[in-house]
């Protein structure tokens, strides 16, 4: 009797371990740390020159605001994301921190954790212009984007030349013939990190941006209604591209940007001709090559081609970025710090140090890299920059959407399936 | 309101302490006659004292998370703020209706059965072989056991590189001897991915089976085999009639460990395929991680973890009563 009781207990204990995987702390609501004169600021520029630059910025701010102390915490990006998540769970959010916008921000706003900056920073919001849309919830601005980039094709100019391609494609048909030419020259046209799903999803996002009008997209973000036929058309456009089989072998499990065999690694080492990805690509490629140069002066960039017969603006771009937000509990001086971070002066320094793509027009000229300068030009010429759908819709709907798109790349989903599964996830959210 | 509640809540506790101390006092007065009882009480206190740290750790890191996950499964919760949106069993309904999850359960059971069907005979054969006096036995044992000692993530990354399409060592070797390789590589082809993951798992965990079986074989008395040999039994007969039956308790324990391990399978899949391609290798654990930490659907992840727990628990209890019972019955 005793014995069997004990074995049952041991079974309970050993299988209890099964459950611990997701379990984490419940919600708390302790106040933000520090007093009214200390501002905690978390950022992810933990390498030089960015780290040193931000320390200087904090020191300058302290000098201009006597009595205020800025506690700067520089972290690696992944660490910062994890710590922020924990901070939101515990309710102890740093005074100034980074928001990626979209559904995630909307959740934070709904939980009453982010400060409305619409009034206090009206001037800065005005200067930033259209890019700020991704950080607005119900017409109120909760964070100021300091770096916004757009997704496009990064390509190897040498391999394009080698295949005899003189100009990058501007329409989907031209893209298809470019792919054909590259294949004919024995070059793998495109690398794709579909193992991480979002790189694959970017293709659908773009065909959707090209197929759907701005109104339909703006509406879908708030109403979560995907019944417009343009969303199916986006999938059909994508299917046509997938059918040309342009991707590196094994792309379904290829990671996006980790290691030399990742999609970015393949482009950086000259094994493929191009890759559709964000503005961070040059930096990623530099980290993946031994000489630290990436593709060097062979780096080229062109925007996503136009879709024939699509309702979307061919000049519209898909992108995203980072914004400074102020937590609800933060002292007023934190708002001043964020405004200072978006000043012409700090944004110009930010651009000069190659830390990102500044959002304040006055700083645009300070971007020195030619490929990035071209990207910036395209971004500023765009009628609007559509925030990455997975960010815009939030992790839950965005995740389901990315899953369905990845299935299409594996040949296991139709254009209609993508719409259906996204709609289903969206309905469950409401 | 709150302070009043606190007082009434504290009251019964205070009463209990008072009653307990009273009992201790009365226990002390009767002198010699109370001694056995007092010793027993003291012993209990001692046990409690020494076990307390372990219990506290278990409460904080096992019991609390278990209950917290179970509680989470009844709410729609995004990972921050208070848990207020009670949805009843809706999360469970969603998990069980989700093809990705039911497929994940199937994948887990495929691994459970494949492990037993493949690793058991293979491990047993190797253990019986390595139990004989053969040249280089120590080296062979080490070779088989090393993968098990290797950290799972490191082994995963190494295999991921070996399995790279075209450029990976494995495909280079296969193509050089004329064996056709799949277009999208072994991990990139949905139909092959789970089998490939299983091969890597077998490479990794065979060492544990062999080690356990070898240890079990040490417990088989030499006299029995000697007596059998004197009676003219062949090596094979000695193994089949003596070694394997006496090894049965070890085998049953290994099967139990293997089963639990297969149900909780996460690391290797996460590194090799991340659950893809096209959800061909998702397991219950990768499902709950992707729902929880990646999509912030903590309620759904909580429900999935409770389902995983119940499946594991049911299997463990059934196995205890049906199979392991005979090992513990007269122990």
Automatic annotation (TrEMBL), chain A:
InterPro entries: Bact_solute-bd_prot1, SBP
Superkingdom of the source species: Bacteria
Protein name listed in UniProt: Carbohydrate ABC transporter substrate-binding protein, CUT1 family
Keywords: Signal
Pfam families assigned: SBP_bac_1
Record keyword Signal present: yes
Organism: Geodermatophilus saharensis
Signal peptide region: 1-23
From TrEMBL, chain B:
Bilayer disposition of the protein: Multi-pass membrane protein
InterPro entries according to UniProt: ABC_transporter_permease, MetI-like, MetI-like_sf
GO CC annotations, alphabetized: plasma membrane
GO biological process: transmembrane transport
Pfam families: BPD_transp_1
CDD domains: TM_PBP2 (cd06261)
Residue ranges of the region described as Disordered: 1-39
Keywords noted in UniProt: Cell membrane, Membrane, Transmembrane, Transmembrane helix, Transport
Cell location: Cell membrane
Positions of transmembrane segments: 47-67, 109-130, 142-162, 192-215, 298-322
Chief site of localization: membrane
Ranges for domain ABC transmembrane type-1: 105-319
Family from the record: Belongs to the binding-protein-dependent transport system permease family.
PANTHER family found in the cross-reference section: ABC TRANSPORTER PERMEASE PROTEIN (PTHR30193), INNER MEMBRANE ABC TRANSPORTER PERMEASE PROTEIN YCJO (PTHR30193:SF37)
Protein name: Carbohydrate ABC transporter membrane protein 1, CUT1 family
């Amino acid at each position: 009797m005793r014995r069997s009781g004990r074995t049952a207990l041991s079974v309970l204990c050993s299988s209890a371990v099964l459950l611990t995987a997701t379990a984490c702390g419940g919600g708390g609501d302790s106040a933000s740390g520090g007093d009214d004169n200390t501002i905690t600021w978390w950022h992810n520029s933990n390498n030089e020159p960015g780290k040193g630059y931000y320390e200087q910025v904090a020191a300058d701010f302290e000098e201009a605001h006597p009595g205020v102390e800025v506690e700067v915490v520089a972290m690696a990006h992944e660490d910062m994301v994890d710590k922020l998540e924990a901070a939101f769970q515990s309710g102890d959010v740093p005074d100034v921190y980074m928001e990626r916008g979209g559904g995630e921000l909307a959740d934070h706003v709904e939980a009453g954790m982010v400060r409305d900056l619409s009034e206090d920073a009206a001037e800065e919001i005005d200067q930033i212009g259209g890019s700020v849309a991704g950080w607005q919830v119900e017409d109120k601005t909760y964070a100021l984007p300091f770096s916004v980039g757009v997704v496009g094709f990064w390509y190897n100019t040498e391999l394009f030349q080698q295949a005899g391609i003189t100009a990058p494609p501007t329409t989907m048909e031209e893209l298809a013939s470019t792919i054909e030419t590259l294949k004919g020259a024995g070059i793998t046209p495109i690398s794709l990190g579909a193992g991480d799903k979002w790189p694959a999803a970017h293709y659908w996002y773009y065909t959707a941006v090209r197929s759907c009008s701005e109104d339909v997209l703006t509406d879908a973000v708030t109403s979560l209604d995907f019944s417009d036929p343009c969303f199916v058309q986006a999938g059909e456009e994508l299917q046509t591209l997938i059918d040309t089989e342009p991707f590196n072998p094994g792309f379904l499990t290829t990671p996006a940007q980790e290691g030399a065999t990742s999609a970015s690694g393949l482009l950086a080492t000259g094994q493929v001709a191009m890759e559709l990805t964000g503005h961070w690509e040059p930096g990623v490629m530099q980290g993946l090559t031994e000489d630290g140069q990436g593709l060097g002066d062979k780096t080229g960039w062109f925007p996503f081609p136009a879709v024939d017969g699509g309702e979307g603006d061919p000049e519209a771009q898909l992108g995203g970025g980072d914004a400074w937000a102020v937590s609800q509990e933060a002292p007023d001086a934190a708002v001043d710090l964020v405004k200072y971070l978006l000043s012409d002066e700090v944004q110009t320094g930010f651009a000069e140090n190659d830390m990102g793509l500044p959002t304040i027009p006055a700083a645009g000229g300070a971007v020195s890299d030619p490929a990035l300068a071209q990207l910036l030009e395209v971004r500023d010429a765009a009628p609007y920059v559509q925030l990455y759908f997975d960010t815009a819709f939030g992790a839950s709907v965005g995740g389901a959407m990315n899953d369905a798109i990845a299935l299409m790349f594996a040949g296991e989903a139709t254009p209609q399936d993508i719409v259906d599964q996204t709609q289903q996830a969206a309905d469950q959210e409401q | 309101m709150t302070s009043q509640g606190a007082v009434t809540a504290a009251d019964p506790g205070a009463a209990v302490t008072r009653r307990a101390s009273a009992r201790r006092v009365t226990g002390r007065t009767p002198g010699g006659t109370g001694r056995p009882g007092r010793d027993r009480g003291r012993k209990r206190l001692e046990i409690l004292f020494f076990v307390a740290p372990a219990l506290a750790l278990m409460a904080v890191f096992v019991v609390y998370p278990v209950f917290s996950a179970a509680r989470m499964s009844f709410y729609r919760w995004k990972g921050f703020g208070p848990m207020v949106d009670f949805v009843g069993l809706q999360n469970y309904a969603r998990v069980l209706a989700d093809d990705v999850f039911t497929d994940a359960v199937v994948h887990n059971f495929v691994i459970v059965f494949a492990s037993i069907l493949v690793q058991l005979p293979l491990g047993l054969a190797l253990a019986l072989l390595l139990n004989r006096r053969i040249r280089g036995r120590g080296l062979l044992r080490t070779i088989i056991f090393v993968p098990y000692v290797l950290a799972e993530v490191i082994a995963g990354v190494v295999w991921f590189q070996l399995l790279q399409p075209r450029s990976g060592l494995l495909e280079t070797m296969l193509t050089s001897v004329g064996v056709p390789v799949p277009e999208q590589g072994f991990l990139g082809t949905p139909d092959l991915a789970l089998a490939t993951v299983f091969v890597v798992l077998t490479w990794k965990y065979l060492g544990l089976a062999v080690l356990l079986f070898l240890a079990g074989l040490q417990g088989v008395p030499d006299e029995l085999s000697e007596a059998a040999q004197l009676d003219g039994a062949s090596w094979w007969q000695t193994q089949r009639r003596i070694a394997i039956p006496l090894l049965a308790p070890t085998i049953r324990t290994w099967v139990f460990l293997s089963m639990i391990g297969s149900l909780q399978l996460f690391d290797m899949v996460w590194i090799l395929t991340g659950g893809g391609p096209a959800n061909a290798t998702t397991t219950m654990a990768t499902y709950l991680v992707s729902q929880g930490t990646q999509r912030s659907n903590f309620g759904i992840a909580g429900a999935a973890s409770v389902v995983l727990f119940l499946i594991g628990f049911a299997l463990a209890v059934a196995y205890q009563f049906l199979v392991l019972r005979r090992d513990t019955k007269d122990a």
